[in-house]
Amino acid sequence: MKLIQHWMLCAALAACTLSASAQNNPPPPPDGQPPGPPPEAIAACKGKAEGAKVEFKGRRGETVKGTCKKMRDLIVAVPEGGRPPPPPRD
């Protein structure tokens, strides 16, 4: 009887371990770089000049006010009060 309980406990622990490791985590960014700006921030500045004031919907559906700034090869909306863009990589 104890042998059956032992094997059932081992099976339960293995099932818990497998289910925890099977979670769908997003892959890490390539080359260790942070993910790019959201599509809404890019669309808000499409056809606008750097420095233009814009509004767009944030990731949670809220209205975000921002300024169009050049980041890498794109002009994107940077939220007011947000962190400055990282320096360009060589």
UniProtKB/TrEMBL annotation:
Segment forming the signal sequence: 1-22
Keywords: Signal
PROSITE patterns noted in UniProt: PROKAR_LIPOPROTEIN
Biased composition (Pro residues): 25-40
Region described as Disordered: 20-52
Record protein name field: Uncharacterized protein
